[in-house]
Design goal:
This protein is of the alpha/beta class. It contains eleven helices and twelve strands. The protein has two domains: 2-195, inorganic pyrophosphatase (n-terminal core), CATH 3.90.1640; 200-331, Diaminopimelate Epimerase, Chain A, domain 1.
């Protein structure tokens, strides 16, 4: 039903604005580019605008140089697409979370915690990536997926599955990827651009964080902390932190990985990752955040010590809750 409404909106309108969440990554950028190219093939007028720049490792993508960066946009549009964004508070173009009126909002996403803030909501929590949904939209519109669209969609799948290593990798995604390769993309070049274009400063920052990485007494919770002092010492920015949380997550025995990132004074962006046992959306929701079962996030106010104490205590409690639940299940199976 959601897909049919999206198609109807596209067919009945001419001018579209496309945006995504703040601090966009591969799925967000790849999705907005793929949708823009699809709409242009249909003869539509399209503007893509985000409040944050395209990350360095994604600037190789076709159309990336045409993405505008602004805090607000005053042009008139028939509809506004918001992609890969579970909450209206994370849409940079919405002032303090307030949605513009008009145009109507078309909300396309795959986060299970999506707030369904759009006039039209096409949410599929079972989709591997928002780019997966955009692929389906292209097929429904009978759009030929050329090399540029294929490159953008493949980027969403590659980054969202951790190079096809995460639990959201499935046969359908691999079949789509094969079709995208047949459309002419170069997987090696895409992977190289995304993962092998580190700056010296970024790796210096990573070295410091790994040296300061911590775990709890059980070894099941591990975390890294990034402050403005780290950025200043290494001449880096928040963009350089992308995927750093995967390092504590990779430690044998760790079930929950946490990344604390200072956003501004007394405000911290928290990222959670699970090894597959703990549902970290439960953690994120406790602090007003959201995301996926094995990857979620939130923002918490307070001093670093206060934030770490609250968040890590919640992580430990979630671990204990899971252990108790498992024990009760075993007891019921062995009365």
């Amino acid at each position: 039903m959601g897909l049919e409404k999206v198609i109807k909106c596209i067919k009945e309108n001419k001018r579209f604005l496309i945006t995504t969440h703040i601090n966009p990554e591969g799925d967000a950028i790849g999705s907005v580019i793929a949708l823009a190219l699809i709409l242009k093939k249909l003869g539509k007028s399209v503007v893509v605008c985000n409040t944050d720049p395209v990350p360095r490792n994604l600037q190789f993508l076709p159309y990336s140089k045409k993405i505008k960066q602004a805090k607000e946009i005053n042009n008139r549009f028939d509809a506004m697409f918001v992609l890969d964004c579970g909450s209206k508070d994370r849409v940079g173009l919405f002032k303090n979370g307030a949605m513009p009126m008009p145009p109507p909002i078309v909300n396309i996403d795959h986060h299970i915690t999506n707030e369904k803030f759009g006039y039209i909501n096409y949410i599929d929590a079972k989709a591997t990536a928002t780019g997966d949904i955009i692929y389906r939209l292209a097929k429904a519109l009978k759009i030929k997926i050329d090399k540029n669209i294929a490159t953008a969609i493949y980027t969403t799948l590659l980054t969202e599955t951790g190079s096809f290593r995460y639990s959201n990798t499935n046969s359908g995604i691999l079949r789509i990827s094969a079709e995208l390769i047949d459309a002419g993309i170069n997987p090696w070049r895409i992977g190289q651009q995304i993962y092998e274009t580190n700056t010296f400063q970024r790796l210096k920052l990573l070295g410091i964080l790994l040296d300061e990485m911590e775990t709890d007494s059980t070894g099941k919770v591990a975390w890294v902390t990034i402050t403005s002092a780290h950025y200043a010492a290494t001449n880096t920015t928040a963009e350089d932190v992308e995927d750093f949380i995967n390092f504590p997550r990779s430690i044998k025995g760790v079930e929950i990985a946490v990344l604390f990132r200072e956003s501004k004074e007394d405000l911290y962006k928290i990222s959670f990752r699970s090894r597959g046992t703990i549902d970290v959306t439960r953690l994120a929701l406790k602090f007003g955040g959201g995301g996926h079962k094995y990857a979620a996030g939130c923002t918490v106010k307070g001093s670093l010590n206060e934030v770490k104490e609250k968040v890590l205590q919640a992580a430990v409690e979630e671990m204990e809750r899971k252990i108790v639940k498992k024990e009760k299940t075993l007891e019921s199976l062995n009365p």
